Amino acid sequence: MTASATPKLAEIPSLDAARAFAAQRHQLYVGGSWVDALEGETFATHDPATGDKLADVAKAGERDVDRAVEAARGAMNDPAWIDMKPAARARLLERLADALESSVDEFAALETLDNGKPVRDARNFDLPHAIGTLRYNSGWATKLNGETISLSGPGTWHAYTLKQPVGVVAQIVPWNAPLAMAVSKIAPALAAGCAVILKPAEETPLTALRLARLIEEIGFPPGVFNLLTGFGETAGAALTTHPGVEKVTFTGSTEVGRLILRAAGGNFKRVTLELGGKTPVIIMPDADVTKAIPGAAMSIFANAGQICNAGSRLFVHERHFDEVVEGVSKIAQGLKIGPGLASDTQMGPVISPTQRDRIHGYIRHGVEEGANLHTGGHEIGGAGNFVPPTVLTRTTADMAVRREEIFGPVLCAMSFSDEDLDRIAAEANDSDYGLGAVVWTNNLSAAHQLARKLKAGTVRVNGGGLDPALPFGGFKQSGWGRENGREGIEAYTETKAVAMAL
Questions:
Q1: Are 327 and 455 members of one domain?
Q2: How many other CB atoms sit within 10 Å of the CB of residue 58?
Q3: Residue 8 pLDDT > 90, yes or no?
Q4: What is the bridge-based pairing of β-strands 458-461 and 410-416?
Q5: N or C: which end of the chain has fewer CB within 10 A?
Q6: What one-character DSSP code corresponds to residue 124?
Q7: Which residues are catalytic?
Q8: Is the overall model pTM greater than 0.90, yes or no?
Q9: Which residue, among 211, 123, 115, has the nearest Cα to 171 in the 3D structure?
């Protein structure tokens, strides 16, 4: 795509409503009210496809964090919230899901304006996932049970455990899937009875702001949900160190995760971290390559590679290596790159000029170190932050392009000749990360054995995607704890043991 291209915009329902919302004056949502940042500062957000300004948004600072924490702590002492029956919390989340479902077109258009992803991806994946996550977690509100325990000491006892909300939770979400990630954090926290302070990424605050309007309309008690738009080094840092915050959950880079761990030590906050990844995709000699080729391509090129679990390392048995690399490269070359609002766009821009230049830097250094540029790698002229889908071969284990998370549409493809599962797993595990892994095979025994041997939080065999019922998180430097499923909601609770002498 070049600056002279004039893509045809898709017929997008509610695009005008999304643009109108973006153009509004955006404040912070604290204690059930919309308020300006106390310092009066704002910041601009931009369309990554054009560079055009989208909105001015309130910039929260430390004092804004203080009042958001005060509002959240007030909610945790308010009978309207802490004494609310679990079924009533479930109904609030169901109503939020209904409201979001009624506004899917507007949210999809807003997500595309803010993030750049193709609008059909936002409409057909991000929105259904967010709605499903709300409905799934609403069901957990009535199922957070303790258990009775038989004690063996002298006397007669009635002993049991309680699951109680951890308290005030700071939730910091990334820019790659802004709405879906925000909902995946607030839904279990609210179902568990916590009070939330959400900080969206400064690059993509608009769907979080629109979501806050829905939450306001539905009628959650004041202070239960608070929204602070701002920057990580100010608002985010203040949240992670604040003594009034009992838990921090963060999705983003491993580097920032380390900073959060240090900051949380002041009052021993509970911490959940979903960090970087360098997911291996393994195509075994018996795999169905007609399915594995598009699966491997979409694993890295979907969302312009801006997925923590992107399949950025491709290991293919030598029997299929040339066919797979050619097949993936052909898909890469055929993908239509352009603005997410264009009707024929299959891959949108990356989030920012900084990210675009960073990705090109990895590709350039990889080639300088001896990698073979099989396809892509060139710079795309004109406006917008576009990077072509890129396939590299002949990389070595010590190259940064193969070891470090790039967060872009860059694939390193390697062949293997041995069918020793231990050796295959060892090569796939040769990474600081352990978020996910993908295996393509028709050998049931090999699939189960590799699933055990791979050091990854999620192993997908022959495809598959995210589901709010499936725990998600990483081994090694890919994070702490799990989101989704039972583990995800129990991460927002404390277990209290009660022993009563009879």
A1: yes
A2: 27
A3: no
A4: unpaired
A5: C
A6: I
A7: 274, 308
A8: yes
A9: 211
